[in-house]
Structures are given as structure tokens and as C-alpha cells.
């Protein structure tokens, strides 16, 4: 039997079941007088008002929760090696340090790989110099056309140096084994997570021809010498949680259950590349500090100090027996991104009494072949952080040696600010790698040789950054798909303290905007 009761409205009370206990308990007595009835109806009216108020409060609270739950989304964009993944690491270190630090063992392997690759480059440079040396001595003076390239020239390589080099040749094999270890824990496919984790070698062999270390001409300046980016890199398919998989694997092999990274790193594992690195430590340090080696690298324009994943100034520490990466090491580690990956954080919202707000930060691969994957993420972003590596004004794209990296960045910036899908999205520019820019300018590399319009302005960091900043702002003003405020920051995203301040300001701005949009703040 059905009984429908509107308990708080006496007038509208509908009784269909006179024997229902609840109905009977609220039915007015038959002897009710007029004044009793008036008093009862007034009470019921008052109760209804309270009930309605409660309903409204509940509904408002639900609405607030619904709106507050709207997550803030940030997309990191920029060309390859602009610093997107490093910016993401800063987010993680700032807002999810526990997860960041639990990933130390995987980053340790990447850092070892970076070190070994740097040595691979040095060994190749020495081989090139040897080849030139041989060519120089075998060339007869009567055939001047075959004289060695003036860019390299004969360099006297001592027998000791060549012996050191021969001992370090084993690092090339170590490189392969570290990649294997990162992918399938030693080459097998026992661990299915890692078997599919696919740390990939980007296509193209290491190109060691002398011509590539010399002339690549910038379209903006026919006389400019451009630095060739390394042509082979290890990349990660970001759709797979490789760090977690790698940690899991190490835990399994070490039969450890703790998630503390120091416990996970199994220093006694005979397969750990750390043993070979430690055994080679003295030779590595000696080779890197050798004057002849530095000289031939300089002659071949191999500037490892300015390249990604440079750790050679910390060899002593990194080749130590029980090396564990620091936070700074992890920020400097280089692993190319493939695909798009989403990272979630919960951040305290200072504007709403410290309640937690979900954030999603998307990191994408910046290589040209990866850029088509960006577009589906343009919808519904609160902000884009665009990374412009301004130190790269004298470099070419790894994927196309005819294209200057700064020119590519300007083109990308133009296409992002003018994209109609992004007209409601905040765009924040990071003019990144200011530290490298400073070193380059101090070393005499002239911006005007690559950006003709710079003219005879002083070649120092203040003037150069102000000029580039104006250029980016000008493009935004001219091309933007909607009126926008230009947010431009000079950054060195491997420097956590300065980057954290910028990210904290960004966080506050986005939280405030998000609240304004949901009409809760005002
Ligand atoms: N010295 C210096 N190095 C930086 C800076 N920003 C990033 N790096 C380094 O540059 C390298 C490339 O940075 P990533 O963050 O991997 O670049 P990315 O934009 O994610 O590159 P892709 O994944 O290929 O798209 C890493 O080794 C970083 O540590 C900076 O401001 N200064
Ligand atoms: Mg990346």
C-alpha cells in the first residue's frame, strides 16, 4: 500500500492510508479548534521555511563541491629539449615530493645513461681526431686539395691518452646494457610492464662526420655557424609508467618491500651499471680533464657543457660506489618524451580555506613528429606553459638541420597564440635556459650573427633577454586569437628555488581565476 505524505505542509497533506502510523501521527485531532489549527499551520509554515532553507543550503553545497572539484589543467608546450619535462619535475618536486623521490632509482639509471652517452661522444671525437691525424700524415705536400680540414686540424694524441680511451671503449657496451636494463631489465622480456615500456632509441645513427660539426647555416644569417644537436637520443614512450615499473622490477630483484629509494637501489646487484662506472671512474675523470681532449672537443665544436644531460662536472660523485641522485641531478637528467602523459596532483587552494584542488599537468613530446598529438589537448585547458629555450639561438633542430631552433620556437609560439581553440586559455611564456644563454653570450657567441634584426645592441644577457621578450610579446599582441595579457618569465628550470616561486604564483593566479569563473569569489 502506498502512502504519499507531505509531512511539513498541513494544507497539502495527502492521506491515502489512514492506518499508516506516520500519517496517523501527523493527522490533526478531530477536536482541533480554530485557534489550535491556526497555531498548527503557523508552526508547519515555519518548519517548511526551515526545511526549504536546509534544502537550499544542501543544494548550494553540492554545487560548490561540483564546481570546486573542477580540476585545473595545464599543458606544457614547446620544441624538443625546451624544458617541458623538467618543468613537470618541478611541479612534482614542489607538490608531490614523495612520489618524485620514490622515482630516484629509475632516474639514477637515466643519469648513468646520460654520463655514458657523453663519453660516447668524447670517444667519437677522439676517433675523428685520430682519423684526421692519420689523413694529415698520409697526405703528400704535393696534393694540397687533400689537406686536413682547418676546423679540426692535426692534434697530437699521446699514447697514454689513447690507452685511456681504449680502456673506456667498454662504455659503449655499457650504454646498450643500461638501455636494456631500463627496458627489459637486462634484455629479457620477463617483466611484461617493462617489456612494453619501450625506451626507444630515436632513429638515426650517431653521425660523426666532420662536416656536421661545422657548418649549418641559419636562414636568417648565411654566415652563422650553428651547433648541431646530438642526432641519436633515448626516448620514452610516456603512455607507460616506466618509472614505477622499473622500481617494481628492482624491488622484485632485490626482494625488498620498502618504497624508500635508498632501499630499492640494490648496490650489490652484479648487473648494476654502477660497478663498471665505478671501475672506470679514474679514467673517466682523467679523460674529461685532459687538455688535449678539451681542445679537440672545442675544435670540433662539441660543447658538452651546454648539452642536455651533462653530468661530467660531477663524475667523482656519480661514479661513486653508492651513488644516489639528488633532486638537482634528477632535474638535469635527460630523457626524451614520446606521446603525451598526464600527471595529477592535489594542491591546497589558499583562496578557499586550504581545501584541496585537483590539478592535471600534461607533458608532451616536442619533437616535430610528436606535435600532431598536441591538438586534442587544446580543449578545456586553464593554461599553457610555453617553453622557449632562448639559449638555442645558434642551434639547429635535431630533426631538421636546416631549421634554426629559435626560429622554430617563434613559429610554434605564433601558431599557439593564434590558435582559435586556445582563445580562452591563459598562455604563460617561459623564456628558458637563461643560464646557458648567459654562458654563451659571455663566451662571445653573438646573437646578431643568428638574429640579424638584433643589430648592434649590446650582446649581454639583459639586453638580449629584453629584446627576445619584446619579440615574443609583439607576436602575441599581433597574432593572438583574443585580447590577452602577456605573461613572460625568464627561467632556468633546473634551478628549483626560482622556478618554484614562478610556479607558486602561477598556481595562485589559476586558482583565483578558476574561482572567479565559477562566480564563487565575488
Ligand atoms: N642548463 C639548463 N638545462 C636545462 C634547462 N631546462 C631544461 N634543461 C635540461 O635540458 C634537457 C631537456 O629538457 P627536457 O625537460 O627533457 O626537455 P623537453 O622539452 O621535455 O624535451 P622533449 O621531451 O624532447 O620534448 C634536460 O637535460 C634538462 O635538464 C635550463 O633552464 N638550464
Ligand atoms: Mg620531455
Can you describe what's shown?
With 522 residues, this protein is α/β, with parallel strands linked by helices. It folds into three domains: 1-30 and 39-57, no CATH class; 72-98 and 340-512, Rossmann fold (3-Layer(aba) Sandwich); 103-332, no CATH class. It has helices at residues 21-26, 34-68, 84-95, 97-102, 104-138, 159-168, 170-184, 192-195, 210-214, 242-254, 261-264, 274-288, 291-299, 315-318, 327-332, 405-417, 434-442, 461-479, 496-517; strands at 72-77, 199-201, 234-237, 336-338, 340-349, 355-364, 383-389, 426-432, 487-490. Strands 5-6-1-7-8-9 form a six-stranded mixed beta sheet, with helices on both faces. It has a three-stranded mixed beta sheet with strand order 2-3-4. It is elongated, with a radius of gyration of 32 Å. The model is unreliable at 1-15, 142-151, 185-231 and 255-261 (pLDDT under 50). The structure holds guanosine-5'-triphosphate and magnesium ion. GTP binds at residues 331-337, 432-435. This is Guanine nucleotide binding protein, alpha subunit.
